[in-house]
Amino acid sequence: MKKVLIIRFSALGDVVLTSLLVRCLKTQIGPEIHYLTKPPFAGLLNANPWIDRVWTLEQGWSGILPLLKAEKFDLIIDLHKNLRSLRVKLALWRVPSTSYQKGNLSKWLSVYFKINRFSKDHIAIRYLNSLRKYKVFDDGKGLDFFIPDADRVDPHGHFGIKGPYLALVIGAAHFTKRPPVVKWQELISLVNGKYPIVLVGGKDEQAAADRLVTGGVYNACGTFTIQQSASILQQALAVITPDTGMMHIAAALQKPIRSIWGSTLAEFGFWPFYGNGREDQNLSFEIKGLSCRPCARFGRKACPKGHFNCMMQQNMSWVADSVLTRNSQD
After folding, report:
1. Residue pLDDT tens, the chain, 330 long
2. Can the peptide bond before residue 196 be classed as cis, meaning omega within 30 degrees of 0?
3. Bridge partner list, 33
4. One fold for both 3-134 and 158-325?
């Protein structure tokens, strides 16, 4: 196996979760690794020293497929497993391929019948297990996330922060994964004054962040790139976050995490993954016993019941105490 193609088009968290496979493949077998993804994630993958070349769909199918054929890959590792990745495999039909157990049936049973048939393995391990027959195994070191020097941010100098601070990731792709502003306000009122707080998110979170800014709370939403935001997480005392891609980046950076779960379940295989050989630094907060939870595999645009109890019933004092108590002991 001299040259392989990994396929994972999106989303941010899923791309980060493939980094375990990438490193183990490179260090244990040593092939030339190519990676096919969407343009927004090319920069993240270009920073990964274990990847030799990144391809994107920017030039369209008619442009990319002949170029991929010309590479004469020895193996395709399909970590997306959808119609688009199937299109690539059909175009490169002479190349052997392998994939992973997606677990859609287990998620479907959980969403519609509340039947738990989840794999005990994290999705990062399930990705890696697609290479078991090629003698590639878990090295126990968890995920990778590489921040180029040009993307390193000094939050203390930029915001005028003194001392350690907390990072609050306030965004997520789906509404039912995001704590509403009122719950963030509740948490901030409990923590502010003990530690400065930096709000992390994209442009979509700018309006919500503006409502949260007060003395000691600083808005980094929509101002920084993904890698620059990762640099802010890397320097934080702890990261408080919903189920989102930045949560997985924080785990890759080995940061203490307080994860807040709404409509989705960690048992889907997406809990913060530090590595089987490293300390688990995550504490999860969820409302157990809700008959409507989970309501979706990936989250929804709105609560289908209208009450949003999976987030509105979150006890933010527990989240705050878990951060303040642990760090006072440290």
Report:
1. 899 999 999 999 999 999 999 999 999 999 999 999 999 999 999 999 999 999 999 989 999 999 999 999 999 999 999 999 999 999 999 999 999 988 777 877 888 878 887 788 999 999 999 999 999 999 999 999 999 999 999 999 999 999 999 999 999 999 999 999 999 999 999 999 999 999 999 999 999 999 999 999 999 999 999 999 999 999 999 999 999 999 999 999 999 999 999 999 999 999 999 999 999 999 999 999 999 999 988 899 999 999 999 999 999 999 999 999 866 555
2. no
3. 4
4. yes
DSSP state letter for 36: E
Listed residue (143, 165, 122, 167) closest to 248, CA to CA: 143
Angle, CA of 80, 63 and 41, to the nearest 5° = 40
The gap from C-alpha 70 to its chain's centroid, in whole angstroms, comes to 32
Type of residue found at 81: K
The SS3 of residue 69 is helix
Each domain of the chain, given as residue ranges in start order, spans: 3-134, 158-325
**Both structure tokens of 201:** 């998110």
Q: What is the rounded CA–CA span in Å between residue 31 and residue 21?
A: 13
The fold of 3-134 is: Rossmann fold (3.40.50)
What DSSP letter does each residue of 162-224 carry, written as one string?
A: -S--EEEE---SSGGGSPPHHHHHHHHHHHTTTS-EEEE--GGGHHHHHHH--TTEEE-TTTS
Query: What count of residues does the chain have?
Result: 330
Q: How far apart are CA 217 and CA 197, in angstroms?
A: 5
Angle at 244 between CA 280 and CA 304, to 5 degrees: 120
- The dotted CATH code for 158-325 is 3.40.50.2000
Strand ranges inside 93-184, DSSP E: 97-98, 166-169
7, burial (CB in 10 Å: exposed 0-12, middle 13-18, buried 19+):
buried
